[in-house]
Each structure stands twice: as structure tokens, then as C-alpha cells.
Amino acid sequence: MKKERLRTRKELAVFLKELRLNLTPAEAFLWNQLKARKFQGKQFTKQHSIGNYIVDFYCPTEKLIIELDGEVHNNPNAIEYDENRTKFLENVGFKVMHFENKMIFENLSAVLKEINDNFSIKNKYYLAPPFRPLRSAVTPSLKTKAYDLYSPLLHHWNSFPYLKN
After folding, report:
1. Is the pLDDT of residue 3 over 90?
2. Residue 157 belongs to what H/E stretch?
3. Which of 5, 27, 61, 144 has its CA 20 to 30 A from that of 108?
4. pLDDT for 109-123, tens place per residue?
5. What is the DSSP letter of 150?
């Protein structure tokens, strides 16, 4: 018996691509904060399929799902659908967070703090790893490279005596 695929279902690929290209304003605003590991160094994907559902944002390392709810979600059918989807996702082992669209625009810092508070590994501040250039016997030192890069500018600067102190 073939195991059912839970994430990234191939039959939803075309629909997912369309959703990714046409984000709502709230999704685009939040995505700008989450993309490219900008937020706490965590990877997020947008419009990700899990089972038969498509979630707005997904962080695989935290198994965290973020859903943005607009006016469309305020009718009884949508509320029931969202509850069933949330139950399914939580039963499979995901953490699901819901935010209203207006929260994204009015209080983004509180939204980001709440997302950070739901990470299993807490990072109060994310610091990028320090830059360490590769060194080898053939490569000149970083100081030499910097001097070679800026020496034409220094020469040009020194040719104007009235600019000196």
C-alpha cells in the first residue's frame, strides 16, 4: 500500500504557484518580514500544501503554520472549515497560529513577537554568524585586498590638498 503524501502535493502545484504570485496585501507585508531567513534565521515558505490544505506560511524547523484571516473568514462556513483544518493540522503535529489581516498592518511587532514566542528554540535576538573570509597561501590577506581596493580613492583624495585637515 502506497503511503499518502502529506506535504507538497503534486496535484496542487499549479494552484500553489498561482497563490504564491497573487498574495493578499497582508500576506505580502508579512512575507517581506519572513522571507530569506530574515526573521530569527528561520526558513519560511509561503502558500505551502499540507494534506489537502494550503497554509499561508510554514516554518519546517518549528513545524509552525501561520494563517492570516481576512473578512472572507468571518462567515459560518469559513469558520467551520478553518476549525476542521486547524484540528487536522494539530493532530498531525503542527502548531497553528491565526492572525487577522488588520493585526499585520496595525501591530506587526506584536505579531512577530508572538511568532517568536512559539518557536521551540528561543532566540531573543538573532545574530548572523560572523563573516570569515577564506584564506589560503595564494590569496593575499584581507588588509592587502582592502588597500588595493581603496588605494585609487586614497590617491585621488590626496591630490586635493585643500580637503586635508
Report:
1. no
2. helix 142-158
3. 61
4. 999 999 999 988 665
5. H
Instruction: Count the Cβ atoms, other than its own, within 10 Å of residue 70.
Output: 15
DSSP character string of 80-147: HHHHHHHHHHHHHT-EEEEEEHHHHHH-HHHHHHHHHHT-SS--SS--PPPP-----SSSPPHHHHHH
Per the structure block, which three cell numbers stand in for 154? Answer: 586614497
* Mean predicted confidence (pLDDT) in 60-83: 88
Q: What grid cell was written down for 131?
A: 563573516
**Predicted local confidence at residue 159, as pLDDT:** 53
Q: How far apart are CA 24 and CA 46, in angstroms?
A: 12
Residues 120 and 62 sit within 8 Å (Cβ to Cβ): yes
